[in-house]
Write a structure and sequence with these properties.
The complex is a heterotrimer of chains A (255), B (300) and C (354). With 255 residues, chain A is mostly helical. Chain A is 80% helix and 0% strand. In chain A, helix 3 (41-74) crosses helix 9, helix 6 (95-106) packs across helix 7 and helix 9 (161-190) runs antiparallel to helix 12. Chain B is mainly α. Chain B has helices spanning 4-9, 13-20, 26-64, 68-76, 78-111, 117-129, 132-143, 150-155, 164-174, 178-190, 193-200, 205-234, 237-243, 253-262, 266-298. Chain C has helices at 2-13, 15-19, 26-45, 65-76, 93-101, 114-122, 159-162, 180-193, 198-210, 219-227, 238-246, 272-285, 288-296, 325-334, 340-352, and strands spanning 55-61, 85-91, 108-110, 138-149, 169-170, 212-214, 233-237, 251-254, 258-268, 316-318. The N and C termini of chain C lie far apart (56 Å). Helices cover 46% and strands 16% of the residues of chain C. Chain C is built from 15 helices and ten strands. Classes of the chains: A mainly alpha (255), B mainly alpha (300), C alpha/beta (354). At the A-B interface, helix 1, helix 3, helix 4, helix 5 and helix 6 of A face helix 1, helix 2, helix 3, helix 5 and helix 6 of B.
């Protein structure tokens, strides 16, 4: 089991040790400090905002991501390859560039007539941009492997599209969608770079958790930064756990 | 899990019964199908146009609006060149590591039987939920001068933080889960039937993996690698903290973009961003070609 | 340690015979080994650090990069600077300072605020007497100004205009951008200068924050926000305003009659040959020749008699020491739990958040 051992070392170096260090840091002041830090009104507002927006964002991602993946795998249209190639760009573009461009496109003087800059909608928009690839890219490979004749058979027999979706597609796609949603949620909770320009960072209004954490680091208030990070981490963990259980349950109970 | 694909095969009964009562109207429903496909396509592409194409088009437009000259100067600047090669170097180390360990993790999670499976599954997603800035900070807390291993590392003459190894670690952390996460659903969809058949026929574990499992999950791996590479190329926050940002030494392309932006050199920033975008596109194309070419060879 | 890494690498390669695989299955092991070896090599290769005194590492905050790109070659043209090569690192002031205290090698540091140097003094990296020289440790000066739209449509002339109803103010967040604290202290100190009490000064800050529509994470981001069309006024440094105006942005700036003198520190680290060369570089940076380059980039000289642009001296110019100095100001205004600004943000946030 050399492989498992190596995997263990790898994950320790990359994840376990840093997170342990973070936990240790957040606990330096004892539990009372921890509670005081995370019940700070500004921190509470930032955490709440982050979680609410993230939930909305992943819900949109689940629907549109699956749709895009389906169109990219099952549909044929000119320029499909180009569209497919562009999907990953939100990852590769440095977040500062994403921020500048989104601000130019959806801020004052927007060429498409949408001005959402410095609102909570803008946070959602930026998050949708940076998390776009997750669901698309996790559903795509499963669709590739899934036999298209099944859908066609059902359709040609006159099954309603909803039935095809519910009976044929979703049972196979759910684990992939959940996988993508989990990643999107985690990324949305931690995202920082693309948000700083378009949100305006107003405490209590448009300041998200990661920006608050950044501020606390700048202030040498490491326990607070670590504490809020741990809370966000915990929230993400709960969501991940629920999603994992859901996908297990789902794979046992085909609706 | 393997029960799923067969479950879908035997089309659920209510639908079938309803179908039987319908008159065979092939032509009409064909048109309906086409219309629906068009509708879905329009929605999907419209969404992509607003959220993805518009920003990307704008970046390209802003980059080239003053012509090719300034762009060429920007990408051939010494520091830009160095940043380019450093970014490639980091990606070349971090992505293969994450790919191999990602496939391993996926197999372990999907095929293995052991306690704490759920924990392992969550563990690989965790680095994601932490702001990259905090990831950087956490790495400094472990491997930095005053960190847990600081004394030991410096006694042995190894510098992790503020040099390339630290940047590789930071990059690997933020792009950790992709390969595993992309591969797991495909593994599940694939089922264990053909793997079992292979081993019944006397194939060794490795043979089964190379001849049966890997060809089956190749699309998952492809997208996983593409995402890992894209993310690894574009990472700023965590790498920024552990790099020390020394120009021409520990400055990656995203750090270079940020530096150009800070210095009001918008063309330089956009040009470097376009280079990153092209690198990500090249990865996708390369992976696609690779998969297509190996498909015939690997398929059972 | 390098040995250990190579052993691990070897172990990985030995995976294949253990598993009795046929030839082409080695790819995986080869890939793994290659990755590990590359990591090991880069870890072992990068542990050298020069001490010849001919190569200096400069770690500085973001804003002066363009100016350093002129100061460094000019230093290289002097007898003292001949043949000296530079490694440069730029980033947010606080982050840069923390990086150096966490082990980033530096010979010269240049930060936005004094506390960032004091952190290195505490860490034993910078001599406690670093600021006992003719310029008190500072290399550049500037003043806090108010940037407005071209033509000044809202007729903003002074601090008091910023608290008028309907005026939208942009300033970086004082908690994420250490340097944004200059702005707050400028507005506060100006009130004291006008003869108001400390309590009145705090009330003024509260009114000012009511008009703040964006608190970007850094001064550069705040400028980006303002240029993209947000707000009527941006509180910023004079040198940033000058740079931006030169770029052709449709802005102008007003220097309030009472404003703060921004002073940016420079310091030398360590001992030995590099420290000597580093000190020569710092001496050049504060010399009349060096200061003329800074002045051309929009910074106010720290010595008198420097050739170049004429900077208007506001009648009520004051320093951070006249409002108590950084140590007391940080504690009083910016303490994460109890600071005055923290309280203001909290009371505004609680009353306006939905």
């Amino acid at each position: 089991m050399l492989g498992t051992g190596l995997l263990g070392i790898y994950l320790s170096v990359l994840v376990l040790l840093p997170i342990a260090a973070l936990l240790a840091k957040s606990g330096t002041g004892g539990t009372s400090t921890f509670w005081r830090e995370i019940s700070n009104p500004e921190a509470v507002a930032a955490i709440k905002l982050t979680l609410i927006v993230s939930v909305i964002v992943v819900a949109i991602n689940a629907v549109f991501g699956t749709l895009i993946a389906w169109v990219l795998v099952r549909d044929e249209f000119p320029g499909k390859k180009i569209v497919n190639a562009l999907i990953d760009l939100p990852f590769a573009l440095p977040t500062i560039v994403a921020g500048v461009v989104l601000l130019a496109l959806y801020g004052k003087g927007s060429p498409v007539g949408i001005n959402v800059a410095f609102t909570r909608t803008a946070i959602g928009l930026a998050l949708l941009f940076v998390t776009l690839p997750f669901v698309v890219r996790s559903v795509q490979p499963v669709l590739h492997e899934l036999d298209v004749s099944m859908e066609e058979a059902a359709e040609s027999l006159g099954a309603s599209p909803l039935t095809v979706l519910r009976r044929v597609l979703l049972p196979s796609l759910t684990p992939a969608i959940i996988s993508g949603v989990a990643l999107s949620f985690a990324r949305a909770v931690g995202e920082f770079g693309s948000l700083v320009l378009i949100t305006g960072n107003l405490p209590f209004k448009t300041e998200v958790g990661s920006v608050y954490v950044f501020g606390q680091i700048q202030n040498e208030n490491l326990p607070a930064a670590a504490a809020v990070s741990v809370v966000l981490l915990f929230a993400a963990l709960v969501v991940l756990a629920v999603l994992t259980l859901l996908s297990r349950w789902r794979s046992k109970h085909v609706l | 899990m393997s029960s799923e694909a067969p479950g879908a095969l035997t089309l659920p009964s209510p639908a079938t019964t309803r179908l039987e009562s319908r008159p065979p109207g092939g032509a009409r429903s064909d048109g309906a199908v086409r219309a629906r496909k068009l509708g879905l396509r329009t929605i999907a592409l419209g969404y992509l146009a607003l959220l993805l194409l518009a920003p990307v088009a704008m970046i390209f437009y802003r980059t080239f609006e003053h012509g090719l000259g300034p762009v060429w100067d920007a990408v051939t600047a010494t520091n830009a060149q160095h940043a380019f090669w450093l970014s490639l170097e980091i990606v070349a180390i971090a992505v293969p590591l994450n790919t191999v360990f990602g496939i391993g993790t996926a197999l372990l999670l999907e095929r293995g039987r052991f306690r704490g499976k759920i924990l392992l599954g969550m563990l690989i997603d965790l680095p994601f939920a932490i702001s990259p800035v905090v990831v950087g900070l956490a790495l400094v807390l472990v491997y930095g001068k005053t960190g847990w291993f600081g004394d030991w590392l410096s006694e042995n003459g190894i510098q992790v933080i503020f040099s390339v190894p630290g940047m590789v670690i930071a990059t690997a952390v933020v792009s950790l889960p992709f390969v595993a996460r992309e591969t797991i659903p495909v593994l599940r969809e694939l089922g264990t039937d053909s793997e079992q058949a292979a081993s019944t026929l006397g194939a060794s574990g490795w043979q089964t993996f190379w001849r049966v499992t890997l060809p089956g999950i190749r699309w998952g791996v492809v997208y996983g690698v593409v995402l890992t590479t894209a993310r690894a190329l574009g990472e700023f926050g965590a790498v920024s903290i552990v790099s020390g940002r020394i120009e021409g030494e520990t400055q990656t392309l995203p750090l270079y973009v940020q530096a150009r932006f800070e210095n009001f050199d918008i063309t330089g920033a956009y040009a470097a961003a376009v280079v990153l975008a092209l690198l990500a596109l090249a990865t996708l194309v390369a992976m696609n070609l690779l998969t297509r070419r190996t498909r015939g060879k690997m398929a059972p | 340690m390098c040995l250990v890494l190579y052993t691990v690498t070897g172990l990985m390669s030995s995976m294949s015979p253990m598993k009795k695989v046929v030839m082409r299955k080695n790819t995986l092991a080869v890939l793994l080994s290659a990755g590990a070896a590359a990591l090991a090599l880069s870890a072992c290769g990068s542990s050298s650090s020069g001490g010849s005194g001919k190569s200096l590492t400069l770690v500085a905050y973001s804003t002066p990069q363009a100016a350093f790109e002129k100061v460094i070659p000019a230093f290289g043209a002097t007898p003292e600077g001949k043949g000296v090569s530079f490694k440069q690192s730029f980033g947010p002031s606080g982050e840069q300072s923390r990086a150096v205290s966490n082990g980033l090698h530096a010979d010269v540091v240049n930060f936005s605020l004094e506390p960032d140097v004091e952190r290195l003094v505490k860490a034993g990296l910078v001599s406690p007497s670093w600021n006992q020289n003719a310029t008190h440790g500072f290399v550049t000066d500037s003043v806090a100004v108010i940037i407005v739209r071209k033509g000044n449509p809202k007729k903003i002339k002074d601090w008091s205009d910023l608290v008028k109803p309907g005026v939208q103010v942009v300033t970086p967040n004082p908690f994420t951008s250490g340097s944004a604290r200059w702005n707050i202290m400028a507005a506060y100190g100006a009130q004291l200068k006008e003869g108001k009490s400390a309590a009145q000064g705090e009330t003024f800050l509260e009114e000012l924050f009511k008009n703040v529509v964006s608190q970007d994470s850094s001064a550069r981001n705040a400028l980006q926000t303002f240029v993209s069309g947000r707000g009527d006024a941006l509180i910023d440094y004079e040198n940033e305003a000058i740079t931006d105006q030169k770029k052709g942005e449709p802005i102008e700036y007003v220097i309030p009659s009472n404003t703060i003198l921004i002073q940016n520190p420079i310091a030398v680290l360590g001992k030995g040959a590099s420290a000597t060369t580093a000190q020569k570089f710092v001496d050049y940076a504060v010399s009349p020749a060096g200061q003329a380059i800074w002045a051309a980039s929009g910074y106010r000289p720290v010595i008198s008699g420097v050739a170049g642009p004429n900077f208007p001296k506001p009648p009520g110019l004051f320093t951070i020491d006249s409002v108590g100095g950084w140590k007391s100001v940080t504690k009083k205004f910016f303490e994460p739990e109890t600071g005055i600004v923290t309280k203001i943000e909290e009371s505004l946030g609680v009353s306006t958040a939905k």
